[in-house]
Design a protein that fits this description.
- The structure holds two protein chains of two kinds.
- Helix content of chain A is 53%, strand content 18%.
- Chain A is of the alpha+beta class.
- Chain B is 31% helix and 28% strand.
- The relative contact order of chain B is 0.19.
- Classes of the chains: A alpha+beta, B alpha/beta.
- Chains A and B meet through helix 1, helix 8 and helix 11 of A and helix 1, helix 2 and helix 3 of B.
- Bound molecules: adenosine-5'-triphosphate and magnesium ion (MG).
- The site of magnesium ion (MG) has 2 residues of chain B, from helix 1.
Chain lengths: 378, 234
């Protein structure tokens, strides 16, 4: 068997223009598919960043919330109801909202302000500078040192600023696991300071965060919260809800799906077409091989080998090109949202296998149809 | 000349059905013996290629049968038949059908590769046969770089590299000039035909008739005459 694969490979690779066209087609398709899906995954991951950063097990919110930033304030009784449910270890309020910081030159910069429960500081970030207790000091804010940090003119501990006409002082620099999607800096403070400094409606609680005693308590907690008309979502459910929002309600998911499908079709047509011409060009030789004594399955395995070999090489090149591109992009744009997962690589591989399968199917049919007698007659 | 290597009995082949049915071959009976060079001649469309294909196991007849060394060819399964062609029969096609992307040497090696001979060994043996046909120095060229006569010799090397007992040539000289064609047939007769083998050649080319031991004349699908060349009787 080894010899015929060697022949198969030589037939293909010595035909440099077709081999190149095949590789380019598949590489291009894989590159685009991986890029599209990675960008989408990156955006989704960023849109869910607050859920990961705060790290609560259960989030209670208004059912209309589909995205952390667009929280809808809830009345205080939601918190007290949550605290009274059996199986709740503790429940704390979280403020999550936007504000304006006035920069030295007089321009304004939007920021996200997260107000942590005063008594527990649940959801606090890791500090790289300063002490967490200082968050209780007068006008104290922590700033997250991420890609957006520079937009606040890179404040240090002790820097004073103006936020919604109140004075603020930076008391610490924080680090969080994932950065957000919207490209604005993040400030942390206490819940009470957040609701006094930032004008808000009658209701002030953006989210109630619950830690259950046991995992098995979660369904009961969800049922009880539902009774008062609110949603209690586990962190996974919340992430899914946000992802679904971006995927299905913003047109982004549809666009990405279309682009991925188009990349697939382009790759399939380039490589399918080229492979088909390749087979057609050699069809009389395959027929001659049949006459000489090659069995149908030997010819089939040669063709499968040719098409899968090219496809896998193209896959490798495509994935390589995509990751090079993303690495370079991230060097220039720190907040560049792209994230390649094994699921994406697996999906692209599957698509490539489908391309190889369809291309070789056409070739295999041709080769099985060819009658040595027709070759003989010329 | 030895005993019979191939026997054809009452072979018949037709194409199409009903009104458009053409009888390509009918009632064809003949045999080819060891050491014999047999020609099939006749006008275009008389059924020569069809007959040749049926006796070499690439076209199933509608009637009659073919035996090769006593084995009934057309009662074999596809794989058995492919193995028989691989091991017993060498083909030289009119248009050579060499792979343009392989070297001359690799083209010659194909039957050996199909027989699962190790790559290096296959190339080594193929080189010997290229030497026999006088093309050793062309081993690493692509076939398109060779002249028609040289390509035909490469095709002959490919046909004989597996040491088949039966060599089948369809119009081997049709695309060659008269002199080259004669030389090739002469070469085949002198260097390749021996008492273990037979050669069947289909041709229009009367300039090469002198090399035949037997000439089958075909007309309209029927064998209309058998001529023995008595000069060749040993
Ligand atoms: N696949 C086919 N379908 C229909 N008719 C066919 C087919 N193959 C051969 N024939 C017919 O059978 C007859 C014999 O054909 P064949 O090719 O055997 O002739 P030939 O003697 O080899 O001719 P030539 O000298 O031109 O090669 C012709 O009438 C041809 O048209
Ligand atoms: Mg013919």
């Amino acid at each position: 068997m080894k010899g015929i694969f060697r022949i198969a490979l030589k037939l293909l690779m010595n035909d440099k223009s077709k081999f190149t066209a095949l590789l380019v087609g598949i590489t291009f398709a894989v590159f685009l598919m991986v890029m599209m899906m990675s960008m989408f995954t990156g955006i989704l991951a960023k849109s869910c960043a607050p859920v990961y950063n705060i790290g609560a097990r259960i989030w209670v919110m208004d059912p209309a919330v589909n995205n952390t930033i667009s929280s809808i304030p809830m009345p205080d009784y939601v918190l007290s109801t949550a605290r009274s449910i059996e199986g709740v270890k503790y429940a704390v309020p979280l403020y999550y909202g936007g504000a304006q910081v006035k920069l030295k030159d007089g321009t304004y910069q939007s920021v996200t302000v997260i107000g942590l429960d005063d008594s527990t500081l649940f959801g606090r970030p890791e500090l790289v500078e300063g002490r967490i207790e200082d968050i209780f000091a007068e006008n104290a804010f922590l700033v997250v040192k991420d890609a957006e940090y520079a937009k606040l003119e890179s404040p240090k501990v002790g820097t004073e600023f103006e936020i919604n006409d109140n004075r603020g002082t930076i008391v610490g620099l924080a680090r969080v696991a994932s950065s957000g999607l919207f490209g604005v800096p993040t400030l942390y403070t206490t819940f009470n300071r957040a609701i006094t400094y930032i004008p808000s409606s009658r209701f002030t609680t953006s989210y109630v965060l619950i830690e259950p005693k046991r995992e098995s308590d979660i369904p009961r907690i969800q049922r009880e919260i539902a009774k008062i008309g609110y949603d209690a979502l586990t962190s996974e459910q919340f992430v899914r809800k946000i992802s679904d929002f971006y995927t299905f309600k913003t047109g982004m998911g549809m666009n990405i799906m279309l682009m991925t499908a188009i990349s697939f079709i382009v790759g399939l047509s380039i490589s399918g077409q080229t492979f088909y011409t390749f087979i057609l060009e050699n069809i009389d030789k395959f027929g001659a091989m049949k006459a000489i004594g090659a069995k149908g399955r030997e010819l089939v395995s040669m063709i499968l080998f040719q098409s899968f070999f090219t496809s896998l090489v193209g896959y490798g090149l495509g994935v390589g090109a995509a990751s090079t591109f993303m690495t370079l992009a991230k060097l220039r744009l720190p907040e560049y949202a792209a994230q390649t997962t094994f699921a994406i690589l697996g999906f692209a591989l599957l698509m490539v296998v489908v391309i190889a399968g369809i291309s070789s199917y056409i070739g295999v049919r041709k080769v099985l149809q060819i009658q040595p007698f027709d070759i003989f007659r010329g | 000349m030895g005993e019979s290597l191939i026997r054809a009995d009452n072979l018949a082949k037709w194409f199409g059905e009903g009104a458009s049915r053409t009888m390509a071959v009918r009632d064809a009976c003949f045999e080819v013996r060891h050491g014999e060079m047999l020609y099939i001649v006749g006008p275009s469309g008389s059924g020569k290629t069809t007959l040749l294909s049926m006796v070499s196991g690439i076209l199933k007849p509608n009637g009659g049968n073919v035996t090769v060394e006593g084995r009934d060819l057309w009662s074999m399964g596809d794989d058995e038949l492919a193995d028989l062609r691989l091991n017993k029969i060498g083909f030289v096609f009119q248009d050579y059908h060499l792979f343009p992307r392989l070297t001359t040497l690799e083209n010659v090696a194909i039957p050996l590769i199909l027989k699962k001979v190790e790559w290096d060994e296959a190339l080594r043996r193929s080189m010997e046969y290229l030497e026999i046909v006088g093309l050793k120095d062309r081993a690493n060229l692509q076939p398109v770089k060779l002249s028609g006569g040289e390509q035909q010799r490469v095709a002959i090397a490919r046909a004989i590299v597996g040491q088949p007992d039966i060599l089948i040539f369809d119009e081997p000289t049709a695309s060659l000039d008269g002199d080259t064609g004669r030389k090739i047939v002469e070469f085949v007769k002198k260097r390749i035909l021996d008492e273990n083998r037979c050669i069947i050649i289909v041709t229009h080319d009367s300039r090469i008739y002198e090399y035949a031991d037997t000439i089958l004349k075909m007309e309209d699908g029927k064998i209309t005459g058998v001529e023995k060349n008595h000069l060749h009787e040993k």
